[in-house]
């Protein structure tokens, strides 16, 4: 049975979509059949980060309504054969119910090893859709105080979720803050009240490559690529030390 992981944040723009694209591609490159599912109904952009806009013609509402099968609607990445995208509907009218999402994810678990659900910002419908049927949840935050406060608020919202299956990823750590890095991470963990799944440095390749849909264009030395590969290995149960930045 595959594992479904929701990627959420309180504040918008913390890097959920970038994280989903990079970690999804890392999981696929580790040999796992991986689906990235855009839950940001009306504001989808995971297809852009993956360079798959022209190819993702059907969305998850088509599968739920029976207009397409999961095999037909989930599009294989052109250069990463283990990576598939199922995009979100463009209009909110097509949004689906919790029961429909539950049924869809049951199928996904049968067909994929891992599924990452890219939620929209905030604690609204997209957040509920992504978290209601997830096996694990990753909260993505930067170290900004307002972002950490929103992460904490998000964790409070998830009080019914098993604590051991909730994780924090701190994104956009800056090298300039190196001296206070440990304190930064500790503060982030304390503020969010979550165990750390990984840290991702600020990396200018993220906007420049994902902005052009080149998720597979990151070089070996890219910090974000290395960090998300480590996180992918931790998701698979490996013990990987935090990378030195
Ligand atoms: N590690 C990083 N280094 C540099 N820039 C980053 C990093 N992670 C994300 N970004 C940039 O931050 C911006 C927001 O990222 P992204 O769209 O992934 O956030 P999001 O949480 O999905 O936003 P939303 O809440 O609107 O869905 C983008 O311009 C992206 O390129
Ligand atoms: Mg996003």
Q: Which structural class matches the secondary elements?
A: alpha/beta
Text of the CATH class: Alpha Beta
Question: Helical content, roughly?
Answer: 25-40%
N-to-C CA distance: 35 Å
Q: How many domains, as an integer?
A: 1
Could you tell me the mean pLDDT? 90
The counted number of beta strands is 8
- The shape is globular
Portion in strands: 15-25%
Describe this structure in words.
- Strands 3-4-2-5-1-6-7-8 form an 8-stranded mixed β-sheet, with helices on both faces.
- Helix content is 38%, strand content 17%.
- The protein has a single domain (3-235), classed as 3-Layer(aba) Sandwich (Rossmann fold).
- The mean pLDDT is 90.
- The protein has helices spanning 16-29, 46-49, 60-64, 70-73, 98-111, 125-132, 145-157, 181-192, 205-210, 223-235; strands at 3-8, 34-38, 75-76, 83-86, 114-118, 136-141, 166-173, 196-201.
- Bound molecules: adenosine-5'-triphosphate and magnesium ion.
- Adenosine-5'-triphosphate is lined by residues 9, 12-18, 40, 120-121, 171-172, 200, 202-203, 206-207, 210, 224.
Describe the structure concisely.
The chain has 245 residues and is of the alpha/beta class. It has helices at 16-29, 46-49, 60-64, 70-73, 98-111, 125-132, 145-157, 181-192, 205-210, 223-235; strands spanning 3-8, 34-38, 75-76, 83-86, 114-118, 136-141, 166-173, 196-201.
